[in-house]
Amino acid sequence: MRVLGASVLVMESLTLGFAILLATKDHTSTALMYGGLIALLLFLAAGLLKRRSGFYIASALQIFMIAFGFVVPSFFIIGVIFVGLWAAAIIVGRKGEAARAAHLASQAEKP
To answer: What ranges do the domains of the chain cover?
Structure first.
């Protein structure tokens, strides 16, 4: 779950960084700093996924990712796509960890 979540967060951070490059022509420096801060926080949140609180922080950052759509309107759609990927990473990651735990338990029972 942690690896999938971290990969989604890093890709979000990179995508937002490229969106800031697109926004440089039309927007103020405040909006660009807002985007840069979100991109940095997403990148740092990938490292915080070792703890349960990291998942809560990263989930809260998804809202700010969608809110960046007020700066670059296409980010409403991109943000929703990444929220779906984030949810899928959590769901698939939990299933994968459960399967791994079951496999390890069955291996431990064999002599």
So the answer is: 2-109
Which residue matches tokens 């809202």? 63
Q: pLDDT, tens digit, for every residue of 67-88?
A: 988 888 888 999 999 999 999 9
Cβ contacts of residue 22 below 8 Å, gap of 6+?
72
Q: Residues 2, 28: contact at Cβ < 8 Å?
A: no
Number of C-beta neighbours around residue 74 at 10 A? 11
Rounded CA separation 35/31 (Å): 6
- Contact predicate 89/5, CB 8 Å: yes
Contacts of 87 (CB under 8 A, 6+ apart): none
Instruction: Write out pLDDT tens, residues 10-54.
Output: 999 999 988 888 778 877 888 889 889 999 999 999 999 999 999
Both tokens assigned to 70: 């007020």
Helix (H) or strand (E) holding 27: none
pTM of the model: 0.84
